[in-house]
């Protein structure tokens, strides 16, 4: 079957689906499935806009609301993960995944589904070490800290995914797996994006959590976005035994969704011709959710996942064939995901703007039904209970954050204005992108990046390398400031834990000739949201 893969959508659904229709008209290419690797921006109304961690001037309604209201319907089944530019309040309603609109499915914080026998997994958000070991505690209305931490990857999601034993065909993450740039045309990447050099050479660009999953899952395909540049790599994995067959992963990072950009990739994937056309639950993943349900945490206290270190009675939560069989029997062997999309918020009406609409914490009926069916904890219900208990004890949110967040971000104050309309133009989750050369294709494809020349995925890979164990970055290497070695040395963290000023200066150093790079660099969110200006210049 044909699968279309898109990078950062940024709410431009009309543009994305129009491109697919153009491919069909001109080349008779009709994808059976569309995957989107984050920054989907499922914005329903003005309140959702206030829950996006971007400056107010970059908040645009875009076109998702038309699909949410039913005015339009996605012409192809669309499955997506979350990124770092999302209506976090909306996606938070569906921690285990669910429909955000008819024919548009969100995978949740982490998830695995099946379509025509193809196994598709993904993890939402981006990696930040100071939030990695916390629970999912955030809920609207967000403050200037939680509006960002809401989309940070958590160790429990990585732990769940690492319990998978059966092969994964396709996996999606928003940020790149750390080290993946060593398996593609790194020289060309650094030529076009020279400000990545320091992080590439120090092996700190990308997510260590995603790198850990890549080494463990070894999927056939891995797709990412986030950095707004197309880049391909081919990784040959090491085998654990002589009996194990060699495995390789084809990696592709996609560009953002803008006119005249090669932001879509079409691939041919082997599928089960006897399988139906419905999106299905994955029985092993459901069994893993049931097995790990006791580990659900909705506090901001940092904690570690169980491991074989003598401190935990149980550390292996992978599931048996018997447990998988029980899930199948519970569902009467009918794994079809019900089409139970429900409106949970008012839809944007261009004729009646409501600029003062406030976000509220909502428990989605889809999540309630899913949790009841499989005996799982409704995370949002648990958060709501915790809030009510805290309110009953007379504890204020600011005091609770100050007491519990001993490993949190040190650069942000503990008291915030809940009105996010005036968010600072600085977002610590952003990186910087060069103003020049933003349209380069680093995938080594020889096709013209336009609908006139449909891309061929098989031409994207020429470099085969084996990933050594020494290059795999464990999440344990990226824990917070209570890391034992840091406690002994008293040293400060680098990278994510630096102050905002230090982080900015790190990427605005002089080049090899001693020339300042200040004029050539701008904040990443400006590059992302200045689409209107780019359209005009194009």
From TrEMBL:
<dbReference type="InterPro" id="IPR004843">
    <property type="entry name" value="Calcineurin-like_PHP"/>
</dbReference>
<dbReference type="GO" id="GO:0008419">
    <property type="term" value="F:RNA lariat debranching enzyme activity"/>
</dbReference>
<dbReference type="InterPro" id="IPR029052">
    <property type="entry name" value="Metallo-depent_PP-like"/>
</dbReference>
<feature type="compositionally biased region" description="Basic and acidic residues">
    <location>
        <begin position="385"/>
        <end position="395"/>
    </location>
</feature>
<dbReference type="InterPro" id="IPR007708">
    <property type="entry name" value="DBR1_C"/>
</dbReference>
<dbReference type="InterPro" id="IPR041816">
    <property type="entry name" value="Dbr1_N"/>
</dbReference>
<dbReference type="GO" id="GO:0046872">
    <property type="term" value="F:metal ion binding"/>
</dbReference>
<feature type="region of interest" description="Disordered">
    <location>
        <begin position="385"/>
        <end position="538"/>
    </location>
</feature>
<keyword id="KW-0378">Hydrolase</keyword>
<keyword id="KW-0464">Manganese</keyword>
<keyword id="KW-0408">Iron</keyword>
<comment type="similarity">
    <text>Belongs to the lariat debranching enzyme family.</text>
</comment>
<keyword id="KW-0539">Nucleus</keyword>
<dbReference type="GO" id="GO:0000398">
    <property type="term" value="P:mRNA splicing, via spliceosome"/>
</dbReference>
<dbReference type="Pfam" id="PF00149">
    <property type="entry name" value="Metallophos"/>
</dbReference>
<keyword id="KW-0507">mRNA processing</keyword>
<feature type="compositionally biased region" description="Acidic residues">
    <location>
        <begin position="396"/>
        <end position="405"/>
    </location>
</feature>
<protein>
    <submittedName>
        <fullName>DBR1 enzyme</fullName>
    </submittedName>
</protein>
<dbReference type="GO" id="GO:0005634">
    <property type="term" value="C:nucleus"/>
</dbReference>
<feature type="compositionally biased region" description="Acidic residues">
    <location>
        <begin position="431"/>
        <end position="442"/>
    </location>
</feature>
<feature type="compositionally biased region" description="Polar residues">
    <location>
        <begin position="415"/>
        <end position="427"/>
    </location>
</feature>
<feature type="compositionally biased region" description="Basic and acidic residues">
    <location>
        <begin position="485"/>
        <end position="510"/>
    </location>
</feature>
<keyword id="KW-0479">Metal-binding</keyword>
<feature type="domain" description="Lariat debranching enzyme C-terminal">
    <location>
        <begin position="235"/>
        <end position="380"/>
    </location>
</feature>
<keyword id="KW-0862">Zinc</keyword>
<dbReference type="Pfam" id="PF05011">
    <property type="entry name" value="DBR1"/>
</dbReference>
